[in-house]
Amino acid sequence: MEISPSPRYQAICYFINNELINEQLQIIVFGIGISENQEWNYAGNRYRSSFIDNVNKKQFLYVQNFTAKKCILTVYEDNKLIRSIICEKTLADVWFHVDHKPKFDANKLFGIDNEYT
């Protein structure tokens, strides 16, 4: 008898997307969702992405996701939650509130400008 992953697990795996920005950041998209919001490039509820960045010898994990009407950024430093930012407007507004941030466009950081997502 052959054991295979459940269809739900397979669907999740098929949508994992890695995007490398300027050979510095690797954004991993691990959830897909759609919305009517053009400013979010139509990404929506259940869309999730993350990346790790090193700043001044400290490691930061950024986890980004959307609900139906909000974009959320959660920041961890050395595996400890340091900040969660919730915003109803643009992705740039979310990133405006982050002290240690990579110098890239907010849409690139969320991974929503990729043709596959």
Query: Would you report the number of β strands?
Result: 6
* Beta-strand share of residues: 35-45%
Order of helices and strands: HEEEEEEHH
Spatial strand arrangement across the major sheet: 1-2-3-4-5-6
Distance between the termini: 35 Å
What can be said about the biggest beta sheet?
6 strands, antiparallel
Structural class label: alpha+beta
Question: What are the salient characteristics of this protein?
Answer:
117 residues; alpha+beta; six-stranded antiparallel beta sheet; 3 helices; globular; disordered N terminus
Summary?
By secondary structure, the chain is an alpha+beta fold.
Structural summary, described in words:
The protein is an alpha+beta fold. The protein has one domain. It contains three helices and six strands, in the order H-E-E-E-E-E-E-H-H. The chain has helices spanning 7-14, 91-96, 106-110; strands spanning 17-21, 25-31, 48-55, 58-66, 71-77, 80-87. The chain has a six-stranded antiparallel β-sheet. A hairpin with a 2-residue loop joins strand 5 and strand 6.
Topology:
Layout: H1 7-14, E1 17-21, E2 25-31, E3 48-55, E4 58-66, E5 71-77, E6 80-87, H2 91-96, H3 106-110
Antiparallel strand pairs: 1-2, 2-3, 3-4, 4-5, 5-6
